[in-house]
Each structure stands twice: as C-alpha cells, then as structure tokens.
Amino acid sequence: MSHRINVAEIFEENLAYGDINQQTSFPSSLRTLEACQLCYLDDPVSPEALLALPDANEAYIAASNYRLYYINKNNQTCVLIYQGCSTLFDIFPQFYNSDKIKSATSRDIERIIQALQKPIHPLPVKNATDYHPRYIVNVSNCTVLHHAVLINGIQQVKSLLKYQPQLELKARYQIQPTGEILELTAKELADYLKHDEIAALLASLTETKEKNSSLIKANRHVIWFASSKDNTTIDTQNKAAKASKEVDEPCSEKSHPIGSGPAKECDFIPRDKALSTQM
C-alpha cells in the first residue's frame, strides 16, 4: 500500500522549528527572466540552420560530437561555447527524439552556466559564460518567503504567512548579464517577476498590517492625550489644595519667624512679649 506524501503539510510542519525571518545568501536560487529553449540539430550544422531551429529568441543547441551552441535570433548571435563529452548533454533532446525542441527550466540554465564556469574540457571561447539568457539570482539577505516568491510557490507563501513573517525585510538580487543590483521586499520581488497571485496576496496582507499599525498609533495617541489631561487635572487640583491649606494654616513656621527660633504652629504669643521683642 503506497502513501502519498503531502509536501505542503511537511513544509508547514518544519516551519515551526526554524526562524522564518533569518536572512542568508542563496546563490543556487537562479531564475531565468527570458524564455529559452534546449534543442538538438542534426548535421550539417550551419549558422543559418542554428538560427532557424528554435521558436524562442534564445536557445542552447546541442549537435553531434558533443558540441554546444548558444544562439540569439534578435542580434544574430551564433557561438560554439562548449565541446567535449559530458553529462551536460543529458538535459538536451537526443538525435533519436522526434521532438528536437523543449523549453529550458531555470535549473537547466543553472547547470549549463555551472558547466561553463568549471569546464572539464577547454572552452572554444574565453567568454563562454557570457552567453546566456537574462536571469536573477540572490546575492544576500534571502528569507524563506523571498525564495518561495522567487519560485512562484503560492502554497508555500500561504503557509509562511500563517507564521506572520516580517514583510518589510529586503533581500539583495543581481540581474545578469547586466550586473544590476536590486534590494527587494517579498512583495516587490513578486511585482518584479510578475507573479500576480502572490503579489496580490502580499499586497492585501501589507495593507491590513498598515491599517492595524495606524489604528494602534491612533489609540496610543488617544491614551496619551487622556493620560496627559488627567495628570494636568490632578496637578491643578493638588496646587489648589496646597494653596487652600496655606490660607487655612497661617501659623506655620514659614509665616511667623519670631525671636531666635520659629514659633510653633498655632502658639499663642502675649502682646506685651511681642512688643518687648520689637523694642
């Protein structure tokens, strides 16, 4: 009897054991920003045949004898970027496949780039790593929520939001090949990638948090104002009571400093003694 694994439930269960707001670099988070295809071309191979094969503007095309080409139809680029036996070619359609074209995933592009960065054979061109579609990759400060947004994992995002992540945290991303640096919140990342469902969800939650924050601030102001008013009233009452006490008790030490020492409160001083003291 087989049991179906509920990945969403396992994901949620594990969230309780970690800090969902922890920020770290995640260099294996590459995601392509342009459509790209993986193709196989039978001999003979020519620039014209290479450029005519794919439907997308950019493609990697495998050919016989373990040759790998990068092509860009818009600028008519056609470059041999890799040659040599490698398991890299396993991700491409093969000569015996009826369909010689398939869409490239972000993982496929990442694998090709890694193979070019650490080649096991000499590369045909020095700048082979420069030939790739536009992609975004995390540089630093990535959170679990950022990564869920990046991979368009709507269910993961919903699970994370149950734990009230800090939506204001920003992660740093780099766009290649331009090298542009972006610092984005999870909501801003969703907008940039056009992950509309996630963007709407985060926007709604952000708006709710802002409203709650405004209400809390308003309530604090009302409480402070009321407290300040009460303190002012109490202070006024205390001053009035003190003034009344001074009027009711004229025989205090401060009011009658007679002779060498102060008269005791409400002492009777004979008239003749008072006159002799003045003389």
Automatic annotation (TrEMBL):
Identify the stretch(es) annotated as Disordered. Answer: 235-267
- Residue spans with biased composition (Basic and acidic residues)? 243-256
Out of the domains of life, which is the source? Answer: Bacteria
What is the protein name given in its UniProt record? Uncharacterized protein
